[in-house]
Amino acid sequence: MKRRVLVVGATGFTGRRVVAALVAAGHDVVAFVRPTSDAAAVRALGTPVVEGDLDRPESLERALVGRDAVACAASLGFGHAPGIVEAMRRAGVTRSVLLGTTAVRTTLPAKSKAVRLEAERVVLADGVGATLLRPTMIYGAPGDRNLERLVRFVRRWPVVPVLGRGTALVQPVHVEDVAAAVAAVLARDGLAGRAFDVPGPAPLTFETLVRTVAAVLCRRRVFPHVPAFVGRLVASREQVARLAEDKDADPRPAAEAFGWAPRAFEVGIREEARLLGCLP
Known about the structure:
Elements: E1 4-8, H1 13-24, E2 28-33, H2 40-43, E3 49-51, H3 57-63, E4 69-72, H4 81-91, E5 95-99, H5 113-125, E6 130-135, E7 138-139, H6 148-156, E8 162-163, E9 169-170, E10 173-174, H7 175-186, E11 195-198, E12 204-205, H8 206-216, E13 225-226, H9 228-231, H10 237-243, H11 252-258, H12 265-275
Parallel strand pairs: 1-2, 1-4, 2-3, 4-5, 5-6, 6-11, 7-10, 8-13
Antiparallel strand pairs: 9-12
């Protein structure tokens, strides 16, 4: 079913790929962007742009005129969920897909955790036909905030420190697979009011992830284990603690519901390394 979709957060790292995936799927797409955002990549797809700001829900409501679906790639960690839901209700939107994060399951006192959990409650309980997708660590292209620096570090330096034991589980998911999930959910009925994790296909230990990056780059590296407190010289206590947490998730419910089949990490990180100019 082809829909008239408003993409919120359309100029972000994930949002740009969501726009591209929905355009490729044949939907009538409009991008909702802040006046200060660089919308060049979205406009290059031939996608109309409507300016507004989630801090002003009335601007979102105006942008929803004539739309029957929303794809929200904007972070739910800033308290905008109630305003988004209310704007959709007022505009009569009956279908939406919003991106959350599996980080809501952290045991650490993350500042945004309570806000994100409340956002999930509002989105799923409000009866606006919403499906919530929770990606794990997103990577896959220049500009990602997770693995680009690691790829460049491993390419350049012969010694790659691994904090602590390096046994914590991670399950990165490629940004284009996340975008494809949004398109897949919009194409199916019966998913409203449900939440799905959208992780990579299988968990890896952090050390395995680092070694995989080195193998993809064809670099022989040394991987010494260093105490976690060393990491606090260059990162916050919370960031270091997060590295010691398992961040895996089960892809099977999403696979059964809408055919979730993300690419293997080795494949995805090779694509990113090539885009970064780290591979021929």
